[in-house]
Amino acid sequence: MMKPSLGIQSLRNTLLGLFTSLVLVSPTASATDDTQLWNWIILNLWENDTHRLYTYMDNRVSDDMSEERLWLMSLRYKYKVNPNLQLGLGYTYLDSHNTTTDVWRDQQRLEFELNPSFKLDEWKLHFRNRLELRFYQDSDEASYRFRQRTQLSRPIDLGCFDGFYTNIETFYMPDIDRINEFRTIPVGLGMPLGDQTKLNLFYMIQSQRDGTSSHWTHAHVLGTVLTYSF
From 13, 56, 141, 230, which residue has the greatest number of CB atoms within 10 Å? Predict the structure, then answer.
């Protein structure tokens, strides 16, 4: 049964307030850090014990939640080889906004994944290893990027929440031979909204290298992930 929408809205506002407080007291926060809002929608189109086909949409607002920064759409397929190994393919189209120059730049990606996972009592340890082949609108050559995410998750029974997860993702650019980004989610919480719908809320710290220099910028991200299964 679907929970009352008023209660869900109230709870969401409370959690976003909590995440905002985490940003304000975070030891990495400074006056130059950005606060962003990322909203994801996942539609599970078809799924069984071995195969999963889904589409994924993302909208990001940056500059202290005042400017639209990026939107994307992606079609993804996952194949479970065995209980501990999953393969993945994906196609993504995105448009990103440089808020300084007010220029939009689109990009297309082909994505390949090799994702092992393991059960540790009630915890699940999951590794997502992704190779991206990226094509930009103003370039005839493709670029590559490697992404590796390590995640721990477990079911919980805490009020309306049924899941907890934490992860860190590392981005490596072969053309500059540098790790140029980290994304760390200290806390993510899952909340079922019905038999086919689930909402995740998370707080992320995004750290990005300025070119090939040793200077890094940081963003504090408040995120929502709404999943619906047909």
Answer: 56
HSE, CB side, 13 Å, CA atoms: give it for residue 209. 15
Q: Which residue has the tokens 């997860």?
A: 165
Q: What is the pTM of this model?
A: 0.84
Q: Please count the CA atoms within 13 angstroms of the CA of 112 that sit on its side-chain side.
A: 6
- pLDDT tens string 38-91: 999 999 999 999 999 999 999 999 999 999 999 999 999 999 999 999 999 999
Of 122, 185, 112, 199, nearest in space to 149 by CA:
185
The string of DSSP letters for the chain reads -PPPHHHHHHHHHHHHHHHHHHHHH-TT--TT-EEEEEEEEEEEEEE-SSEEEEEEEEEEEETTTTEEEEEEEEEEEEEEEETTEEEEEEEEEEEEEETTTTEEEEEEEEEEEEEEEEEETTEEEEEEEEEEEEEETT-SS-EEEEEEEEEEEEEEEETTEEEEEEEEEEEEETTTTEEEEEEEEEEEEEEE-SSSEEEEEEEEEEEEE-TTSS-EEEEEEEEEEEEEE-
The β-bridge partners of 112 are 89, 131
